[in-house]
Fold this sequence. Notes:
By secondary structure, the protein is mainly alpha-helical. The protein has helices at 22-35, 49-68, 86-92, 94-119, and strands spanning 44-48, 121-125.
Amino acid sequence: MSSYCRASTGFCWNDGSLFFQEDVFGYFEPCVKKHVPDFDHYAFTEMDASQCALVASSLRDLAVLGQSVTTVAQLRDHVGFIFHGSEKRFENDLADNLSALARLAEELADWLVVHASRHGQVSILGL
Length: 127
């Protein structure tokens, strides 16, 4: 998506783009970092279609894991709790958060596959 930020219009995303709160996207950062070595939380990162497929697969694995774990400790190697207190907040409502994490991981995986096949790449706009 080459029109990621058009100064003339003031828009920094396209129709169909996704916006995540920083802490929520942080949950998925390990899936991205695993397959996109140049990923930087604070920078613009492009993923080609093959990287998107790998990230989507990792997201689907995370969704399955999220449906089977019983403690937040079981997620530590798979979920990015990048902000102070985010792990504790996740744990405070563990059952609902695990369910939401699994659903969102599946939805993001589906979105990645569709948009990577349509555009040949997906861009992540960091901070």
